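User: quick one, sequence for these tokens?
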């Protein structure tokens, strides 16, 4: 019996040794290894350009990814949302998550942040190829075109971790 067990162990070890070496790559998050395995192009990196940040922000809004949306808003934008939310004892992040904005007298209304940030029914985003001076530094313009062909200028500012949407009036 012992001899049979040792023979089986030896056969299994030999069989494993004959297999080609496979590199195991973890499928975690949006890392480049995931796209390599899927043989797909990685999405635009929001840190690379204002247009890439605008595309990722729009995609995050469409997918109700409030965490990513909040990450892609400039500090002054987040601060303005927090101040607006304080009128109903909430945070700006909670407003994004619930798709709401406080109104007069403590009322709350449902909104589409896609429309607030980009304009209604966006069909195209493109680099505006110009800069904009803001109180928060130099910004770059991204143009959002809606179905009715109106264009909205979006200003993105460069922060430590990438390009972020700057909008303070809600």
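Assistant:
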């Amino acid at each position: 019996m012992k001899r049979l067990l040792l023979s089986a162990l030896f056969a299994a070890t030999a069989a494993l040794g004959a297999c080609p070496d496979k590199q195991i790559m973890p499928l975690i998050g949006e890392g480049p290894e995931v796209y390599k395995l899927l043989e797909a192009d990685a999405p635009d990196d929001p840190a690379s350009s204002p247009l890439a940040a605008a595309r990722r922000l729009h995609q995050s809004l469409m997918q109700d990814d409030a965490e990513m949306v909040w990450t892609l808003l400039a500090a002054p934008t987040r601060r303005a949302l927090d101040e607006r939310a304080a009128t109903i004892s909430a945070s700006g992040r909670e407003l994004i998550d619930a798709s709401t904005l406080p109104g007069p007298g403590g009322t709350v209304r449902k909104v589409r942040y896609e429309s607030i940030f980009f304009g209604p029914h966006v069909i195209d985003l493109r680099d505006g190829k110009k800069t904009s001076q803001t109180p928060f530094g130099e910004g770059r313009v991204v143009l959002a075109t809606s179905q009715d062909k109106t264009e909205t200028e979006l200003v993105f500012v460069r922060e430590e971790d990438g390009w972020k949407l700057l909008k303070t009036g809600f």
